[in-house]
């Protein structure tokens, strides 16, 4: 009887832990949601201090209760950052690798850096997340320079999301790609692989920023393909709370340095936002809007959170 009671209590404890872990991933019924927010000034680079009382979260016309506004600094500065390079990029990208290496080397000790190449619908990790920034920088190589059988960078992004363990650190990715979905083929606003990648990243709390670089072959100078590729990159980054960088529809940046400098600046002005979403009738994504009492700034984040209807 004692043994039976012990195993019953152990099973109940395991169920409670599992339920708690799920609630953190999919808040609901009064549990607070949590997402990463970047404070972006309208002009210049001076970012004012934003306090918790300055932040408002809305679902439609209804205002949600804010439970947390924590700067991602000090004890909360932990960051896991993946550099993602599309293997269908033109090998001219090689002239930009030094900028990326310098960016990696300049990261603080609180940042773990990983490197992955997007190829055939898979994120091929060549360097796992590490505090050895020199090793991460050394793992960079020239892109393969071919399209591949399933060259959708968005399927590869979904693959990376599945491989990325959840924890309390910030999760961000910096993508280098032309954004062209060679598997889907036709450019429109309903690319299923793009939408799936956005949903996967938002649900996992991964913020994606991207810089455009031309692809290999005909796609590298096709105005139509590059138009949709850059539209996709912009949609991916906007809907996950990141930033897109480009200079024109077919032009290659002469240097990534100013983009990486801006990205670094954004990483230094981020906050963890906690709020209580309305109890949903069924599990799913909930659209939100952020506002601040402080003038001249935008609060940039994913525009949705996934909320569970179950306790």
Short description:
With 311 residues, this protein is of the alpha/beta class.
Question: Helices, strands, pairings?
Answer:
Blueprint lengths: L1 H24 L7 E9 L13 E5 L2 E10 L7 E8 L10 H9 L5 E9 L2 E9 L2 H6 L14 H11 L6 E8 L14 H13 L1 E7 L10 H18 L3 E2 L11 H11 L2 E7 L7 E4 L1 E4 L4 E4 L3 E4 L4
Helix pairs in contact: 4-5, 5-6
Quickly list its features.
Rossmann fold; 7 helices; single chain; globular; alpha/beta; six-stranded antiparallel beta sheet; six-stranded mixed beta sheet; 311 residues
Fold and architecture overview:
The chain is an alpha/beta fold and 311 residues long. The protein has two domains: 30-73 and 273-307, no CATH class; 76-267, von Willebrand factor, type A domain (Rossmann fold, 3-Layer(aba) Sandwich), CATH 3.40.50.410. Helices cover 30% and strands 29% of the residues. It has helices at 2-25, 97-105, 133-138, 153-163, 192-204, 223-240, 257-267, and strands spanning 33-41, 55-59, 62-71, 79-86, 111-119, 122-130, 170-177, 206-212, 244-245, 270-276, 284-287, 289-292, 297-300, 304-307. The strands form three sheets. Strands 12-2-3-10-1-13 form a six-stranded antiparallel β-sheet, with no helix packed on it. Strands 6-5-4-7-8-9 form a six-stranded mixed β-sheet. α2 (97-105) links the parallel β4 (79-86) and β5 (111-119). It is globular. The relative contact order is 0.22. Residues 1-25 have low confidence and may be disordered.
